[in-house]
Fold:
Amino acid sequence: MAEKKHSIWVFGDYRNYFQNRVTLQLLSRANDLAKMIDAEVCATVFGHEVDEWVGEYIAHGASKVYVCDHPALTFYSTDIYVVLMERLVRQYGPEIILVGATSFGREFAPRLAKRLKTGLTADCVGLDINDEGLLVQTAPAFGGSLLTRIVTPEKRPQMATVRPGVFQEIPHNYQAAGEIVNVPLPDDLPGDRIRLVSSERQAAREQKLGDASVVVCGGRGMGSRKKFRNLYELARVLGGEVGATRPVVYAKWADEDALVGQADKHISPKVLFSFGISGAIQHTAGIKNAGFIIAVNKNPNAAMMKMADVAIVADAGQVCTALIRELKKRIRS
Ligand SMILES: Cc1cc2nc3c(=O)[nH]c(=O)nc-3n(C[C@H](O)[C@H](O)[C@H](O)COP(=O)(O)OP(=O)(O)OC[C@H]3O[C@@H](n4cnc5c(N)ncnc54)[C@H](O)[C@@H]3O)c2cc1C
Structure:
């Protein structure tokens, strides 16, 4: 196969299921973009005993993986990973680098961009290629009230961090072949300025909401904290998770990590219930990948009702209670 002139790199953030999903979503979008600029899609994997992830990334669309596998890389280290990546980038010259906007990605990518003296668009919610073949990076600006499109005409590589849930991963293909480039650990790496004393995995709700196939989302129209809490019962019966709009989070009816929308979380459930939500653009930006939407609202003209596959004009609290009762009855019988 002819060598491609350009390459798009995706930083492999594999620490747990959630972070790995972002990487897979980016590999998927990188494949779309690669077709537009005739580029190859590569992933990088740094760590120790990482074969599983290398295979996973090839199965999800990476045609080449740069792997640095060494006991010294057992734990994530911003200092070391940035230097390693910088050297690889200088050696191989990728056109584009994509990093998941995870807490690590948000720490890692700006430092890398600084060392490479290039630009970085943080927290993108869209990626495309324009007529000049430049990466168009869509990101919220001015506190999320505007979406802005950014290109990097001169500096290379073009770099972006991308929010989880914006793109859909492509189904894995374990028959896919990919090239593995083993990168030795340089012996002149800087010491890590941070010493890891211990680490403990915290069960993350965020992860569950982003990956849930059923989400029950509630808005101000639920009327009170007490009524809103019924949505948790409905989600439990349906085996789903609860999401919320901003006013609900501000009113402390739901935790911050339940917020859905452009300011925070993009979700892609197969079925989305939307109770008492008007459908403001800042909220619907986070649900555009939802499959089937059932909305309940007193106002038939609410934007959310227009967007729904099934729109029920009724009191949200009453429909929620009735649904719980009916579903429980069916489970019992
Ligand atoms: C910079 C910025 C960023 C933002 N980011 C986000 C974000 O990430 N996520 C987000 O959600 N919002 C965000 N917002 C807020 C957003 O603009 C909306 O204000 C918010 O989504 C509205 O929430 P809501 O639908 O719960 O409330 P409302 O807009 O007040 O809608 C309540 C709905 O409930 C219906 N209703 C009332 N009573 C009942 C009843 N008894 N039964 C059934 N229906 C009823 C009403 O008809 C109405 O449609 C942001 C705003 C700004 C300015």
